[in-house]
Amino acid sequence: MGKYLSVDLKDQVAVVTGATRGIGRAIAEGLAVNGAKVACIGTNAEKLQQTVEEIGATGVEVTAHLCNVALSENVVKTAEEIIARYKTVGILVNNAGITRDKLLRGLTDSDWDDVIAVNLRGTFLMTRAFCETMRRAKKGRIINISSVSGLQGNRGQSNYCASKAGIIAFTRTVALELANRNITVNAVAPGFIDTDMTVGLSEIVKQVAKDSTPLARFGQPEDIANAVLYLASDWASFITGQVLPVDGGMTV
Ligand code: NAI
Q1: DSSP 3-state of 144
Q2: 154 lies in a domain?
């Protein structure tokens, strides 16, 4: 288990997409360590099962939900299943994301569509599916994982940057729409974090990434999880529509 911020999330129910590894896995673990019941969403049944067994060792209820967040019918069915089981959901973390990095001249239609579908459409579908239960409860926290690539351009990532900037615009707008129901909607914008998503980057790209980060290192998944835990906690109840960069100073 990683080291996590201590906040009181007892009796809360949280949904985390892309929970089987990397940042999503740390978020799910951090929520569970703090007492929240966690519904883990992913696309790989075996890894989901392993994740819930390991995180379930914290003693809280953790469940696995096989779902591709880019598919509307999948999301609607999964939301019904989770709400039927837990009655309500107070925390939604839209973390699932993919990259298909290429310079524009080589970027195919499917490179564009796949990234927009998972990162942006997935965030929209999940938020729409869970906001009604939060509206009824007049309480909720929605936390979207964007990226520094949503705040600034990055060569070879026009599809990814567009999806992550879209998440920021979506976050701000939905924050306005849901504020009167006491639901906060915020985004976290990670810089370079040590996960499977970045492990395959070339040594040159990794060095450039470190050089462009004032703290001169990659962050850990727990760094992002701790920002999410803060935004999910009562301590952040007056923060909405914001983007919190957790990037070692990259966007300063
Ligand atoms: P990762 O590749 O290790 O994990 C992504 C997770 O999303 C996996 O569990 C994967 O199975 C799941 N996923 C992918 N497509 C899905 C779909 N259609 N439906 C449901 N689940 C799906 O990535 P990592 O690094 O943990 O990234 C997590 C989030 O943080 C992503 O949104 C990513 O864009 C963002 N991010 C990551 C950064 C990094 O340096 N690692 C930097 C900035 C943002």
Answers
A1: strand
A2: yes
Asked whether residue 226 is assigned to any structural domain, the reply reads yes
As for how many domains the chain has, the answer is 1
Q: What is the pLDDT of residues 34-60, one digit of tens each?
A: 999 999 999 999 999 999 999 999 999
Contact between 47 and 71 (Cβ < 8 Å): no
Q: If you take atom 17 of ligand 1, which residue's CA is the nearest one?
A: 68
Mean pLDDT of 164-185: 98
Is this prediction's pTM over 0.85? Answer: yes
Measured in degrees and rounded to the nearest 5, phi and psi for residue 94 equal -90, 95
Model confidence at 26: pLDDT above 90: yes
State which residues form the domain around 55: 13-242
How many CB atoms lie under 10 A from the CB of residue 53? Answer: 11
Tens of pLDDT, residue by residue over 68-112, are: 999 999 999 999 999 999 999 999 999 999 999 999 999 999 999
Tell me, what CATH number does 205's domain have? 3.40.50.720
CA of 18 to the centre of ligand 1 (A): 6
Coil, strand, or helix at residue 145? Answer: strand
Residue 134 lies in a domain: yes
Angstrom distance (rounded) from CA 97 to CA 161: 12
| Best mutation site among 95, 126, 170, 171 for ligand 1 pocket (most ligand atoms within 8 Å of CB) | 95
